[in-house]
Amino acid sequence: MRAIVLLCLLESALVRADDYSWGGPGKSKEGIDPGTENICVTDQASCGCCLMQQQIHRMKMFFNMSLNELEKELTKSKTVLNNIRASRSAFSVALTNEKNLNCFGPFRDDKLIAYKHVFINLGDGYSVDTGIFTVPRSGVYSLALTIYSDAGSPGNSLAACASLQVNGKVVSGPRERNMQDQEDSATIVVALHLKAGDKVAVNLPIGCFLCDDNSHYNTFTGFLLYATD
């Protein structure tokens, strides 16, 4: 900003210099010796006006070059920032948002859990239709899974279990199977190095069931800690 103000002042001084003769303020142009018309060409050392013009020209070139470099750096910074924003990835979902407690399962076959209530889905990596989180960018991710189930009454069989999977392979699986507890919960938290395109999901094994309402006892969360590509 200071440089721009200085340049404007110099421009103003140059314009005003046209109002004066070579002899300085107060002398008319008619009094100029014709032999001194090209004095700036023949003897630059004796012409302060020409020197000032040269300095202004150099300053213009310097400022233009500096401005171009700054614009290039700004463009690079914007590109990096846009890439960072585009790669942001975080999701947190719950099994349901229904008012009354409802159970998911048990089923005769393994079944992927499609969590329907979305707290956040930054980057749209998680699909509520399939329950699958597709990794948008290679990096280290934090993944957390909390499960909860209610057998309905004491003495009933409780089977609170699920498995966190990456590309169909089990990474970890919290499990609570007994007939002593009417209800129980479990949580796992892991950090994994995932590649772009990997599929992360939660599977409900045969015979297991999870129960949830709008208190959100069953949650599935993941976010990018840092990229590695």
What overall geometry do the principal axes of the alpha carbons give?
rod-shaped
How confident is the prediction overall: mean pLDDT? Answer: 80
**What is Rg?**
37 Å
Structural class: alpha+beta
Treating each run of at least 4 consecutive H or I residues as one helix, how many helices?
3
* Helix percent band: 25-40%
Number of strands: 14
Order of strands across the widest beta sheet? 4-1-14-6-11
Distance between the termini: 39 Å
Largest sheet: 5 strands, antiparallel
The SSE string, one letter per element, is: HHHEEEEEEEEEEEEEE
The proportion of residues in beta strands is 25-35%
Uncertain segments:
13-32
Architecture overview:
It is a single chain. The chain has helices at residues 2-17, 39-42, 48-87; strands spanning 90-94, 102-104, 111-112, 117-122, 133-134, 139-150, 158-161, 163-166, 169-172, 175-178, 183-194, 199-204, 210-212, 219-227. The protein is rod-shaped and about 105 Å long. It is an alpha+beta fold and 229 residues long. The strands form four sheets. The chain has a five-stranded antiparallel sheet, with no helix packed on it. Strands 3, 5, 8, 9 and 12 form a five-stranded antiparallel sheet that branches. Strands 2-13 form a two-stranded antiparallel sheet. The model is unreliable at 13-32 (pLDDT under 50).
